[in-house]
Write a structure and sequence with these properties.
Two copies of one chain form a homodimer. Chain A has 652 residues and is mainly alpha-helical. Chain A has two domains: 391 residues, no CATH class; 87 residues, no CATH class. Chain A is built from 26 helices and six strands. A four-stranded antiparallel β-sheet of chain A has the order 2-5-1-6. A two-stranded antiparallel sheet of chain A has the order 3-4. In chain A, helix 17 packs parallel to helix 22, helix 20 runs antiparallel to helix 22 and helix 24 runs antiparallel to helix 25. The longest helix of chain A has 36 residues. The first copy, chain A, starts with a helix and ends with a helix. Chains A and B meet through helix 7, helix 11, helix 12 and helix 26 of A and helix 7, helix 11, helix 12 and helix 26 of B.
Amino acid sequence: MILSALLTSVGINLGLCLLFFTLYSILRKQPGNYAVYAPRLVAQRKSEQRSDFNLERLIPSAGWIRQAWQPSEQELLMGFGLDTVVAMRIFVFGLRVFTFAGIVGIVILLPINYSGNQLSDDDSDLPDISLDSFSISNVEDGSNWLWVHFCAAYALTGVVCYLLYNEYGYISSKIIDYFYASKPLPHQFTVLVRGIPVSVGDSVSEKVGSFFSEFYPTVYLSHSVVRRTSKLHSLINEVKQLRRKLARLKLNGNASNRHKREGFLGIFGRRVNVIDYYEKKLEDLQEQVRMEQSSLAGKEVPAAFVSFKSRLGAATVLHIQQRINPTVWVTEQAPDHKDIHWVFFSTSFLRRFISYVLVVVACIVITILFLIPVAIVQGLTNLEQLETWLPFLKGILRLAFIRQVITGYLPSLILQLFVSLIPPVMIMLSTHQGYVAYSQIEKSACIKVLFFTMWNIFFANALSGSALYQIDVILDPKNIPRVLAEAVPGQASFFIAYVVTSGWTGVSSELFRLLPLISNYCRRLFCKKDDEHVEVPSTPYHSQIPKILVFELLGLTYFFLAPLILPFILIFYCMGYIVYRNQILNVYMSKYETSGKFWPLVHSSTIFSLVLMHVIAIGLFTLKKLPLASALILPLPILTLLFNEYCKRRFL
Amino acid sequence: MILSALLTSVGINLGLCLLFFTLYSILRKQPGNYAVYAPRLVAQRKSEQRSDFNLERLIPSAGWIRQAWQPSEQELLMGFGLDTVVAMRIFVFGLRVFTFAGIVGIVILLPINYSGNQLSDDDSDLPDISLDSFSISNVEDGSNWLWVHFCAAYALTGVVCYLLYNEYGYISSKIIDYFYASKPLPHQFTVLVRGIPVSVGDSVSEKVGSFFSEFYPTVYLSHSVVRRTSKLHSLINEVKQLRRKLARLKLNGNASNRHKREGFLGIFGRRVNVIDYYEKKLEDLQEQVRMEQSSLAGKEVPAAFVSFKSRLGAATVLHIQQRINPTVWVTEQAPDHKDIHWVFFSTSFLRRFISYVLVVVACIVITILFLIPVAIVQGLTNLEQLETWLPFLKGILRLAFIRQVITGYLPSLILQLFVSLIPPVMIMLSTHQGYVAYSQIEKSACIKVLFFTMWNIFFANALSGSALYQIDVILDPKNIPRVLAEAVPGQASFFIAYVVTSGWTGVSSELFRLLPLISNYCRRLFCKKDDEHVEVPSTPYHSQIPKILVFELLGLTYFFLAPLILPFILIFYCMGYIVYRNQILNVYMSKYETSGKFWPLVHSSTIFSLVLMHVIAIGLFTLKKLPLASALILPLPILTLLFNEYCKRRFL
């Protein structure tokens, strides 16, 4: 890629961003779109429903940026919970890291790279210069200038570790402050006990009661056994629906609708008064509900929530093994009541273990072999196939422009479609792993998506071979530095373009919310029942955090390879900081609070990025015929991993 | 190696074993050797001191075998503690595994191997047959007979896993029974707290007291702060020595010895009465001791033993993090008072972490690069070098027999010398790892010695290249199955010889205790103060368990490669079972009780051996042109590792 092509791409995407921002600033002021751009406020009835038209509504403005900028961290913490603050700290951390990296990269490394002569095409004009002239590939082999890159790698690692340590400390202190500031919550006094061993006919409730009043008489308060209520739930839902239907019928004065036939589909059978008919049905249902409720005692599941008089009591029970066999009376922290996922309470330890293993295997297979089905589907949709399948398109497909669009965009569209399926798929997989809380599921899915993204964005593109070739590389650890050092620098221009297209435009389309906008428009058009029920989307940590972290990975690994990428990443972090603050304030609502459980993930991912940078550095200095530098880099990954180990023990 | 050579080697070593056994059965009856062969009994004054001579004392007998066989496991448990029982269970487990493996190997696999024609030297007589004819190398490439080996691998894995599971369950139940059967011990009510944050001038004792009475008012009982007492200890030792000296002087009526000169070495200065002189010195010392004792309060270390009213209270404090910063108020189970290692109480968390890392690095370096210094030392002691250094040996070294002995035995003697240094070295390394109990140190040293032994016995011999070549192999995991499958079967005869020489003779020399015998003889000869003080050796788990486990590794990996090794290993386990029972009854004394903490090590080592067998099988079936079998073996290591994971969670 040459410089002018990069600038063109930057221009196009900058234009797209500005367009999205402008459209957003206009559309957000239209009352009909409040459900799209401020569902959180609508749900809290904070957004005033001005429907009077004025000109101001059509003029784009940047007021939302000021609004998003304003709230202090303390206000975010109090109003939106700790997870929100942790998510924003990822941006703050990224901004700090890449401000330092950007200054070092652009002021020191870039001139050195550009003054090199390895690629020897320095005679062309500035716009025609290959981007590779700005990368380390342009420095002569064995040149002493490479020691500057060497020092930069050490300096960046030091700075990142220092920032990581501070950030972890800061977040730990926030977690503590948050805990002290918030009221005592019921789930802090409660322990979830699973795997209660009961023989047939015994009552779980009695067993739990006698167990805890025997062993923890001073701290035990009460317990409630989990029961199988799916049938009751569906009955109650039916009752609710029927009630709503009846209310609607009674409101509608139309007498012609008041009769229907009893039998199949209302066509056959005796003609009856509809209201009488439904009222009788409702009574039947309510009777069934009462019967189901009274028979619930027999549907106990060997799991119970046990409450204690003090948090220390709950913590004691939580941390002490209750029985010789650790697979029975398994205790874990009770999730918040909004956070409970009810499916996996009855499964045994062994079944949970097996499903855990199966899910991990499935996740690995999906991650590694993802590109194979995608490639097959992409192959199926080539032009000849399309013409055979959809003959009526033949005429259109002959047009050169259409052909270009289809061959150029269809494969990447299909890839994007498949990629966008990954977060829901990973959530589904995590759901079957045996967790009892949505927050656990989301954290687990977040890890899976992170693995997937790093593999399929970074490795699959950098190594750019078949999946089996990539596995081959991973199975040959001795050669990893060499292979990466050969492959990674060459992909610098691809990744710069990736940051610009996927990063910048991704952030602005996150702001613009195209899909919810369309669905909202359709709903208003066809259903005509707007504002009846606004669904506030839950903060999608599991899909957003991996996206942000993958840019950090790109920034850190390309820091000394191709420092030109750094300003683009810095801009991404700036935009992301504002846009996500805005989304948090207006759109998303945390359904539960994990108390900063996502930060260790950010920490580990940053450590991984650093070590990957070191590994590439080792390979690169060898390729650049500077074996001494290569050897002297070796302590760096070891020290980084030790630092990680220390942090784990220091902050838990 | 041919069959007759093996038989010769077996004959020689069997002879050696019988010689050792005979000598043992005679020597153990000599009263002068009681301190060598029954120090435990002597220390407990159970061994009657018969000094009347009779003929029976000179006749070898097998009575000791009956004695060693007699005690039941329950008696061992009650009399010698749980660790002893666990150590004996290793033999029981090994006997069970290798009885099954031996039957399958000899009855099924051996005939199949022998009937193969791959090596095509089937015309020679039985004594001249190469041992390779009994190994899998003799089966034709691609032969369907190999599927029998395939099934045998699956069957053995299943049986071993079943036995492992049962054994773990059995030992867990023993641990629980032992706990219930023994009296409540003080250390079960006590928690060791380290890293107590104190500012200068504060009293640690007050801080600990107020902390625990504030947070655990109902269960807290008392505490005692650790103090720096090394100076006091040395003073008290001096006082003791002086008292003993005085007592001896007063007993010895010899007046000529009662005077000495005050000054340097008793040569110069005033002539004084020795007894008066020493008595005055003793008084001075006692005064110093009193002063030191009164100043102890100022020598507090930020660590304390905190006792609680109940075991549950202690467990609660143990398992709950006391403070936000997990590196202060670190709690751990207090070791038994006999088990405490006092050195590392004052060091901070960070220093312990650093010393831990350094020790691990040192251990890895020693393990991997061990053979390099050994080879250098062996090189230094070749004949020419010896002749240059010790010219007077020139005449002797010209004798052919002497030359053969020196060139044949000196290198292996030096290797043995270095190997025997490893357990003490590993103990020393573990000592610096920051543990506060000897049992922790020994367990950690045991793991280190196990790594070392497996690497330097199995891998170094099987791969038989330079250390760097071996590291190269490990860094190339894809090729590990192929490299192992090529190298390992060829070493079968070497390892059979190893089992016979090192295993059999090792066990019988363990019984014979040559070095203690010699040192006892010397002491009796020169010191003439026998029976004054018998030192009972501590059970050397850290050097013995790895030795036993390495034979298990050999047996499992060679099970289907060269089943001829199995009977020899079975004999080793039989001999070991009797000999170690005898040693435990008569010689060793456990200084502390770890409650079966060594078993997880045996478990992990067995799992490792199984997986190694599978890896070799994968490589071997590929080499033998049976790729389907190679692919079908793949699930086996995965299932084994999952089984291991399950066991870890099931038994903790």
